[in-house]
Amino acid sequence: MIARIWSGESPLWRLLLPLSWLYGLVSGAIRLSYKLGFKRAWRAPVPVVVVGNLTAGGNGKTPVVI
């Protein structure tokens, strides 16, 4: 299904394309607000380790943390 949407063979891409433009617009605005100084990065008072990636589950993150 994802391959059909990606290649443009599915009508679902007509719905997803405007949503991707909206996502790009919002993420660009957030990035610009940091560059212009309207927003500031927050620093945690203690060291933080992040274990993960774009895949939500099934990559074995829990055993790595434990």
From TrEMBL:
Coiled coil: none
Top enzyme category: transferase
Keyword presence, Nucleotide-binding: yes
Transmembrane segments: 12-34
Protein's UniProt keywords contain Lipid biosynthesis: yes
Domain of life from the UniProt record: Bacteria
Cellular component terms (Gene Ontology): plasma membrane
GO biological process: lipid A biosynthetic process; lipopolysaccharide core region biosynthetic process
GO molecular function: ATP binding; lipid-A 4'-kinase activity
Pathway stated in the Swiss-Prot or TrEMBL entry: Glycolipid biosynthesis; lipid IV(A) biosynthesis; lipid IV(A) from (3R)-3-hydroxytetradecanoyl-[acyl-carrier-protein] and UDP-N-acetyl-alpha-D-glucosamine: step 6/6
Enzyme Commission number(s) from the entry: 2.7.1.130
UniProt keyword annotations, A-Z: ATP-binding, Kinase, Lipid A biosynthesis, Lipid biosynthesis, Lipid metabolism, Membrane, Nucleotide-binding, Transferase, Transmembrane, Transmembrane helix
Functional note: Transfers the gamma-phosphate of ATP to the 4'-position of a tetraacyldisaccharide 1-phosphate intermediate (termed DS-1-P) to form tetraacyldisaccharide 1,4'-bis-phosphate (lipid IVA).
Listed name of the protein: Tetraacyldisaccharide 4'-kinase
High-level lineage: Bacteria, Pseudomonadati, Pseudomonadota, Gammaproteobacteria, Enterobacterales
